[in-house]
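ping. complex inputs:
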Amino acid sequence: MPGTGTGKLVRRIAWQLRLVFLFAVLAVLPYLLSYSQQEIAVLLVINVLLVSSYRLLTLTGEWSLGHVVIMGVGAYASALLAKRLGVSVPVSLLLGGGIAAATAAVLSFPLFRMKGFYFLIGSFAAGEIIRLIWKRFTEPFGGPKGLKRIDAFPDIDIGFLSIDFFEPVNYYFLALVVVSASLFVLYRIERSRIGLTFHAIHWQDRLAESVGIDTFRYRTLAFVIASFFAGIAGGLYAHYVGAVNPTRFGVDQMVYVLVWAIVGGTATFHGPILGVVVLTVINEIVLRALGLDTARPLIYGAILILSVLYLPNGLESLAPRVRERVRRWRSGPAATGEGAG
Amino acid sequence: MNAPDERPILEARGLTRRFGGLVAVDNFSFSVREGAIHGLIGPNGAGKTTTFNVISGFYAPTAGQVFFRGLDISGRKTSTLAAMGLVRTFQGSTLFQEFSALDNVRVGRHLGARARFLSRLLGTDRSSEREADAKALATLAFFGLEELADEPVSNLPHGHQRMLGMAVALAAEPRVMLLDEPFTGMNPEETRRMMALVRRIRDRGVTVMLVEHDMQAVMNLCDIITVMNFGALLVEGVPEVVRNDPAVIEAYLGSATANGANDAA
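pong. complex structure:
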């Protein structure tokens, strides 16, 4: 089968070229943006990790309403470790992810007794409890005002090279490296047998269980991995913005994550990423230019309804559709010509 | 102690399962000999499927025990039982409908394709995955489905879906396979082919226990048949004995007096 072999190689090279091109664009991008847009770009990169980690959980068929709170667990943990215990920030970031993952592992015992809608509500309740704990305990969580003056990422200064991560451009690149590495791991997991098993549990959990898949363990695994990366996203956020509070991780933020995921489409890896990028661009550039950015919830709601009605498989399904149209449009005249001949 | 070849591989003792006030399985005992094709039959509502669900760990028994290879397995998780070698199939076309036929069987290889999390991530599980793929393909070939390996399940005709369901279970390399209505919805030709497959599975050293409504198939295929009625044991024996047992005939066909007695019970 040499034909399929070269076909595979060509496709692989095309894929790698596309990736190189993407990274080139991402490398140039911040220099084309204004200072405030650079700040938005940093948050966008962080949100890409948030929504992609969320998708990993949805592979098992469970939709959580606590994902943003879990992100907050990572943010609070990393911030407190750095502030109170003097842990250096890159280490606290990883530990924050670990604490978010551990929180998910503990929560999975009550939560995965439920499925579907009940899991959704249960995850919401669990998230609200965590938020109430932040609000109630001023020590160490800072109460409703949260934590302020969180340590920033330490500057790199080794003679010829000095990077100040207070600059959005520099933090953008830092976040880009961390998020790219995280996305690579998430992608590998999905492409491995673990991903196959997640899908299997989603479609037929009883059949999966009957061939020896411990569905509770695998649901927990998905939840723990998703939460680890949500926690990393939280840490990246905390050390960039320098402040966290319970409201920042509220259910309205969770609704945005859901809208990104649904509008983008959760069937493919890139769907939710597409969703968050397109909606952020619409929000920050189009709406801001029109002076409508305060109407964001309204417009997000409208976009959600429209996409569910007209693009039920999300933005990701748009590209194949357009390609199909173009192909038909191209072959159309030729085909009718043949018919006439 | 019994001789090893007579020791049952699967056994239920005083099995009872209640749902609220309803007693679906009532003090039911049976034993399955290793290497047998063992039928479990009974009129609708006799408790066959509930019995299967209790044996395979979907429900815990209210009372009584299930023994598998001499171990008490009552109330253990389905996945644990599968790892021990007790695997069930399902009624109808319970499959991963969105997957290809091959991916269905690959999921069935779950227990045989173990790898560490890190090696999954790094791709060093490739050799064990290749082996799993080869075994999955061999299992498909056993059922004559190898040409449909890349076909999405939803495109397969009903008969093929039923065979694929058995292929998924067989890929888990069971010692005992529980088949839940393997012939339902099949035409006579498909049933004949399926019966031959069940025999070949048994010849590979897998003990088979099946629940089925197709009497002719059960009588022709099974070495021994257990008949259930109202959750309890009615008769057990070889097909010829069961076929001619007045109690069995009455349970299936009923009579005026029998119906009256049943209603009272």
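The domain at 1-85+174-185+214-265 of chain B is CATH 3.40.50.300 (Rossmann fold).
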